[in-house]
Amino acid sequence: MEMKSKIDTTIQFSGLKTGCYEYEYMLDDAFFSSFENEELSQGTVRFMVKLEKTERLLMINFSFSGIMKAECDRCLGEMEVPVEGEEILCVKFSDTETSDREDEVILPTSAYKIDIAQWMYEYVAVAMPMQHVHPDDEEGNPTCDQEMLQYITGVADEETDEDKASTPNEVDPRWAKLLDLK
Question: Which pTM value belongs to this model?
Answer without folding.
Answer: 0.76
